[in-house]
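Renewal narrative, Specific Aim 1. Our central claim is that a sequence can be written position by position from structural information alone. The example that follows is taken directly from our test logs and has not been curated for this report. It begins with the structure tokens describing the chain, in the order in which they were read.
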């Protein structure tokens, strides 16, 4: 088991010419953010938008699961877009 947790943000431009991002922790996708221009009614907290309580819960879980480990942050362009 690695003593370093890898947190990776993949950024790219989607078909609608807008930015998209994915968040991966140790290679597992935990979040994906994209424009809601095609379906604006989805722009509701807790539906398709993440709210502060979601981030707080994710951070709490992250800290509990990876206690004492170093964290490496990586920011890359997503070549799969």
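The sequence written for that structure reads:
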């Amino acid at each position: 088991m690695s003593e370093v947790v890898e947190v990776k943000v993949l950024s790219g431009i989607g078909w609608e010419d807008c930015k998209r991002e994915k968040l991966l922790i140790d290679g597992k996708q935990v979040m994906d953010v994209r424009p809601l221009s095609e379906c604006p009614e989805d722009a509701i907290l807790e539906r398709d938008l993440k709210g502060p309580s979601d981030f707080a819960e994710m951070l709490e879980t992250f800290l509990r699961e990876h206690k004492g480990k170093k964290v490496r942050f990586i920011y890359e362009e997503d070549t799969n877009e």
